[in-house]
Amino acid sequence: MNIEFQLRANLKCSGSLRGTVSPSEITEFVRACNAGLLKRGAPPGCGAKVVWWQVAGSEGEEIWLEIVSDRFVRAHDALFRLKKEFGKFLGRRRVGVRSVEIEEYEIAVEWDEAGEREAGEGEAEAGLRLRLKKLPFVKEIKQEAVAGEKRQLRLSLAVDEAGLEQRIPDRLLKLLEEKKEAASWKGKSEHWELLFESEKKQFYFEKDPTEEMARRGWIKHAAGRGQWIFGPQATRIFRALERVLLTEVCKPLGYEEMIFPKFVPWEVWKRSGHAKGIYPEAYYVCTPKTRDPEFWEEVADYYKVTGEVPREKIMQKIECVGGLCYAQCPPFWVFLQGKTLADECLPIKVFDRSGTSHRYESGGLHGIERLDEFHRVELVWLGTKEQVQEHAKELQERYRRVFSEVLDLEWREAWVTPWFLAQEGRAGLAASKEVGTADYEAVLPYSGKWLEFQNVSVNGDKYPKGFSVKLQSGAELWSGCSGVGLERWAAVLLAQKGLEKEKWSARFRAAAGLGGEGEREGELPEVFKFL
Ligand code: SER
Ligand code: ZN
Question: Which amino acids bring their CB within 6 angstroms of ligand 1?
Answer without folding.
Answer: 327-329, 378, 419, 455, 481, 483
